[in-house]
Amino acid sequence: MGAHVEVQSVSSKHRGDAILVRRGDQRWIIDAKWKRPSTERDKNYELSQADFYQFFAYGHKYLGGTGDIYLV
User: Fold this and answer.
1) What is the number of structural domains in the chain?
2) 36-48 burial, b for 16+ CB within 10 Å, e for fewer?
3) How many CB atoms neighbour CB 18 within 10 A?
């Protein structure tokens, strides 16, 4: 029998752009950005400072400061 997976929206915006996925003790944040990141690492992939603050806030609020956040 497969493991139970729980999915919950964590976005307060009108579009659900981030979800929390839980499977047993594992938890992940999956965050969708409605823009195309660049491949230039030295330009922070053209993500804004606000995007990085959002990742940080999600990680602390929903993952207790540890875990994985995926950008899709």
Assistant:
1) 1
2) eeeeeeeeeeebe
3) 24
Domain of residue 47 covers 6-71
Give the rounded distance of the alpha carbon of 13 from its chain centre.
14
In this predicted model, what pLDDT tens digit does every residue of 45-65 receive, in sequence order?
Answer: 778 888 888 888 888 888 888
Does the residue 48 lie in any domain? yes
Q: What are phi and psi of 43, to 5 degrees?
A: -105, 20
- The pTM of the whole model exceeds 0.85: no
**SS3 letters across the chain:** CCCCCEEEECCCCCCCCEEEEEECCEEEEEECCCCCCCCCHHHHHHCCHHHHHHHHHHHHHHHCCCCEEEEC
In terms of Cα–Cα distance, which of 72, 20, 25 is closest to 6? 20
